[in-house]
Amino acid sequence: MDRKFINVILLGFGFMFVFTAFQTMGNIEKTILDSITQDDPNFVGDGYTSLAIIYATLALCNWMAPSIITITGPRGAMMIGAVTYLFFIITFLFPRTWLLYVASVMIGAGAAAIWTGQGNYLTLNSDAETISRNSGVFWAMLQCSLFFGNLFVFIKFQGKTHIDLETRNVVFGALTAVCVVGMVFLMMLRPARRTPVLDDVKSEIVPVQEAEGPMEAFRGALRLFCTGDMILLSAAFVYTGVELSFFSGVYSPSIGFTLAMGDNAKQLVGLSGVFIGLGEVLGGALFGILGSKTTRWGRDPVVIMGYLIHMTSFFLIFINLPNAAPFGDTMDVSYIGPSPYLAMFCSFLLGFGDACYNTQIYSILGGKYADNSTSAFALFKFTQSLAAAACFFYSSRAPLSVQLGVLAILGSAGTAAFCRVEWRARARARAAALESIDDKLSPATHSLADNTLHYD
């Protein structure tokens, strides 16, 4: 196993443990905070508001992330970010409304550093042949966090209609320890330098010097954001942000709030996260194994498959969960009697479809913008996080049918835009190949013509 692939594996383990803590926390935050409010009337923190603050701060701070990485490097940026994730988890052991929102701002800033650093570091350890494989392997390892963390929550919440103080503290303590393990793996990462060229095809890349300063990095990000392909890709980024906020913070709590699911409705919150994780891991592993094939056949078939899977899941969720499910406990029903089995199947579809989109976005950014990967991944996270923040702000007000309708519209637009960029890149590749053939044939053609004239 070569050193760069070992770096990718270590990166995957680091993120798997750090995000076992955070993604599990995000999945249960609304449910947990409602239980804390019942125990302590002075606590008025809201899960949706906290998540909205996190993603809004992440969006704003992403503009500064390329500049920070020019100072700290990708490994330093990831460690700084991981510390803020640890702080966020620890604050739940001492529930205070003001502390919740301060920690939400801090983790939003830290997330900008950790994710931009991750994108840059993954690119440094990849080339044209390995970027799709490495993206899939990293994504599968990352999403194992949903599986392990939520399986633990499923066991701890078993048979509970109210999450008591002792249960909460055991969960928070365990997640804190897991986050520390992830930080140890991130400290084990070794320096890496990028192989000179990833894609052989010229694309809309804004040149960035290896030793650029913070202001140059910021201006480079602005220039890149205004290019045609990046504007189109932003539509796909927006969709991934909205569907991320839906499955990570809205859908699972909605299952728990649907009391017609039965006595174990709260327990299903954790189980939903497990099935989302299974879909994510299966998708990431599949596209990691088939990485070389997707590079050859194009990324658009995978994204279109993700689109069809998501549209199917949205329809099934619409007929399975009541309209008022995102707001709190309800005995309402939808068009059919709420089915836990169907709800878990939809969780799996949401996870698998999300893996389809994200692995291919990582692949196209790491390949197409290899010389400007820090800015490219920062812009991806900026757009995605801004959309996620907007979704969390309206999630506490918009009924389920409206949220699903927004997802369907944005999914259609984002998929079409991604495919347009991929098809345009393929056309450039064909043109470049033909131009290369012409260049090789031209000397031979001239030589044949000279020989013919000499013979005459």
Plain-language structure description:
This protein is an all-alpha fold and 456 residues long. Helix content is 78%, strand content 0%. The chain has 14 helices and no strands. It has helices at residues 3-39, 47-61, 65-91, 97-124, 131-156, 165-187, 214-225, 228-257, 267-289, 291-297, 300-320, 340-368, 373-395, 400-455. It is globular.
Q: What is the general shape?
A: globular
Instruction: Please tally the helical runs, counting DSSP H or I stretches of 4 or more residues.
Output: 14
pLDDT < 50 runs, ≥5 residues = 197-211
Alpha-carbon Rg, integer: 23 Å
Compressed to H and E, one letter per element, the order equals: HHHHHHHHHHHHHH
Q: What is the residue-averaged pLDDT?
A: 82
Q: Please identify the oligomeric state.
A: single chain
| Straight-line N-to-C gap | 61 Å
Question: What would you call the structural class?
Answer: mainly alpha
Question: What's the story with the biggest beta sheet?
Answer: none
What share of the residues lie within helices? over 70%
**How many strand elements?**
0
- Beta-strand proportion: under 5%
